[in-house]
C-alpha cells in the first residue's frame, strides 16, 4: 500500500525548495523503505536545485542520511526491518566491467530503487543521487543501505553518506597517505575538513590547511592541522612557496584540492613534491577547464588523481569509520554545526553559501 509522507522538492531551476506530500510506492523485490532519521544538507543538493547536475525536475532532494529500515521487498536479504543504516549512492552491481576488474569503486551500474517516488498527482520525482532523503521516508535499493551500530549518534554517522566520506576517502583511499608523510588540504568546508581528519587518521606528520576564512583555518587545527595558511591575496606561487618553506623546500607528499576551482587546483599542483600525489575531490562545475603548461605536467612526475566519493566502498568503509567515531578516534560529531527540521532546508542553503557551517543536519 503506497504511503504519503512529507518531503522537500526542487520543482524548477533556481526556485526555493518546497515541503510537500510525496508518495512512497510499495517496495519492489530488492527495494527497501527507510524511515529517515537524519539528513545532512550537502552542497550537491543545492547544485541539484540550481540545475548544475541535471534538469530532470522535480527533484526529491537529500542524500546524506541515516535511518531505520521499515519495510523490505520479497527478495531482500541484505537488511531487515529494524536495522539502523547509513544510505549510500555506491551500491555496486558486481557485474560491470569495473567490478569484474576488481575496481568496484568505479562501478558503472550502481543499484537504485526499482520504482520512482511521486507527487500526489503522479508526477515522478528524481531522487537526488538515487536516494531522496529530505523526507520522512524514502525508497532505495537494499544495496544502498549499510548497517551500522544502532547505538551510534545518527546525525554524525549519516554524514558518511556523502561529503565527509568524500574527504576522508580522498586522504586515506585516493591519496594513500602513509605514516610520516606531509599533506596540504586546499579548502576547509566539510569535505576539506574531513580530508584533514583523514590525513591525521592515516598518520601524516605534517598537515597544512589552506583557506581564505580565518575561522575555518582555526577550526582545522581541531581536526588535526599542524600548520595553516591564509591564502587571501596570495598568488598560486606564493602559496606554493609557503608550503615548500614548511616542507624543507620540497613540497608535500600529497596535495588535496577540496574546492574544485582552477586557483586551488593550481595551488595543489605546484605545492606538491615532484613525486607527490595530487587529489581532486572538490567537484568542478560543468565549464571549468584544467589549465597547466604541458611541460609542467610532464616535468613534475607523481600523479593526478580524481577522487569520486573518496574512492570508498560503503560496506567496507562506513562501519569502520563509525567504529572509529564510537571509539573517540574520529570526531564525526564535530561536523554537525546545527540541527534543523525539514522546513528549514532553504534557510540552511543560505547559511551554507555564507560558509557559516560545516553541516546543517535535518532531524526528521
TrEMBL record:
<keyword id="KW-0520">NAD</keyword>
<comment type="similarity">
    <text>Belongs to the zinc-containing alcohol dehydrogenase family.</text>
</comment>
<dbReference type="GO" id="GO:0008270">
    <property type="term" value="F:zinc ion binding"/>
</dbReference>
<dbReference type="GO" id="GO:0046294">
    <property type="term" value="P:formaldehyde catabolic process"/>
</dbReference>
<dbReference type="InterPro" id="IPR020843">
    <property type="entry name" value="ER"/>
</dbReference>
<dbReference type="GO" id="GO:0005829">
    <property type="term" value="C:cytosol"/>
</dbReference>
<dbReference type="InterPro" id="IPR013154">
    <property type="entry name" value="ADH-like_N"/>
</dbReference>
<dbReference type="Pfam" id="PF00107">
    <property type="entry name" value="ADH_zinc_N"/>
</dbReference>
<dbReference type="Pfam" id="PF08240">
    <property type="entry name" value="ADH_N"/>
</dbReference>
<dbReference type="InterPro" id="IPR002328">
    <property type="entry name" value="ADH_Zn_CS"/>
</dbReference>
<dbReference type="GO" id="GO:0051903">
    <property type="term" value="F:S-(hydroxymethyl)glutathione dehydrogenase [NAD(P)+] activity"/>
</dbReference>
<dbReference type="GO" id="GO:0050607">
    <property type="term" value="F:mycothiol-dependent formaldehyde dehydrogenase activity"/>
</dbReference>
<keyword id="KW-0560">Oxidoreductase</keyword>
<dbReference type="InterPro" id="IPR017816">
    <property type="entry name" value="MycoS_dep_FDH"/>
</dbReference>
<keyword id="KW-0862">Zinc</keyword>
<dbReference type="InterPro" id="IPR011032">
    <property type="entry name" value="GroES-like_sf"/>
</dbReference>
<dbReference type="InterPro" id="IPR036291">
    <property type="entry name" value="NAD(P)-bd_dom_sf"/>
</dbReference>
<keyword id="KW-0479">Metal-binding</keyword>
<feature type="domain" description="Enoyl reductase (ER)">
    <location>
        <begin position="14"/>
        <end position="362"/>
    </location>
</feature>
<protein>
    <submittedName>
        <fullName>S-(Hydroxymethyl)mycothiol dehydrogenase</fullName>
        <ecNumber>1.1.1.306</ecNumber>
    </submittedName>
</protein>
<dbReference type="InterPro" id="IPR013149">
    <property type="entry name" value="ADH-like_C"/>
</dbReference>
Amino acid at each position: 500500500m503506497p504511503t504519503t509522507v512529507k518531503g522537500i522538492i526542487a520543482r524548477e531551476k533556481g526556485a526555493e525548495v518546497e515541503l510537500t506530500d510525496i508518495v512512497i510506492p510499495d517496495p519492489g523485490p530488492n527495494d527497501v523503505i527507510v524511515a529517515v532519521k537524519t539528513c545532512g544538507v550537502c552542497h550537491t543538493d543545492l547544485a541539484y536545485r540550481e540545475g548544475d547536475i541535471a534538469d530532470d525536475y522535480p527533484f526529491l532532494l537529500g542524500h546524506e542520511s541515516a535511518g531505520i529500515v521499515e519495510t523490505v521487498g520479497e527478495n531482500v536479504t541484505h537488511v531487515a526491518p529494524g536495522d539502523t543504516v547509513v544510505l549510500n549512492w555506491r551500491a555496486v552491481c558486481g557485474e560491470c566491467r569495473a567490478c569484474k576488474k576488481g575496481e568496484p569503486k568505479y562501478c558503472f551500474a550502481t543499484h537504485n530503487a526499482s520504482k520512482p517516488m511521486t507527487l500526489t498527482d503522479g508526477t515522478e520525482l528524481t531522487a537526488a543521487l538515487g536516494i531522496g532523503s529530505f523526507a520522512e521516508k524514502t525508497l532505495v535499493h537494499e544495496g544502498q543501505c549499510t548497517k551500522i551500530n544502532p547505538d551510534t549518534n545518527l546525525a554524525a554517522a549519516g554524514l558518511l553518506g556523502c561529503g565527509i566520506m568524500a574527504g576522508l576517502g580522498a586522504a586515506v583511499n585516493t591519496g594513500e597517505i602513509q605514516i610520516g608523510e606531509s599533506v596540504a588540504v586546499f579548502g576547509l568546508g566539510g569535505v576539506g575538513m574531513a580530508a584533514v581528519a583523514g590525513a591525521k587518521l592515516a598518520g601524516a606528520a605534517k598537515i597544512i590547511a589552506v583557506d581564505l576564512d580565518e575561522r575555518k583555518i582555526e577550526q582545522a587545527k581541531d581536526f588535526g592541522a599542524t600548520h595553516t595558511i591564509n591564502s587571501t591575496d596570495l598568488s598560486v606561487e606564493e602559496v606554493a612557496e609557503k608550503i615548500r618553506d614548511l616542507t624543507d623546500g620540497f613540497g608535500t607528499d600529497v596535495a588535496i584540492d577540496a574546492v574544485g576551482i582552477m586557483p586551488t587546483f593550481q595551488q595543489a599542483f605546484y605545492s606538491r613534491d615532484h613525486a607527490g600525489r595530487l587529489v581532486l575531490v572538490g567537484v568542478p562545475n560543468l565549464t571549468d577547464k584544467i589549465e597547466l603548461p604541458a611541460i609542467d605536467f610532464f616535468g613534475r612526475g607523481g600523479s593526478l588523481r580524481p577522487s569520486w566519493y573518496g574512492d570508498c566502498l560503503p560496506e567496507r568503509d562506513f562501519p569502520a569509520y563509525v567504529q572509529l567515531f564510537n571509539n573517540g578516534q574520529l570526531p564525526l560529531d564535530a561536523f554537525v554545526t546545527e540541527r534543523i527540521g525539514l522546513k528549514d532546508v532553504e534557510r540552511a542553503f543560505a547559511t551554507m553559501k555564507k560558509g557559516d557551517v560545516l553541516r546543517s543536519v535535518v532531524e526528521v
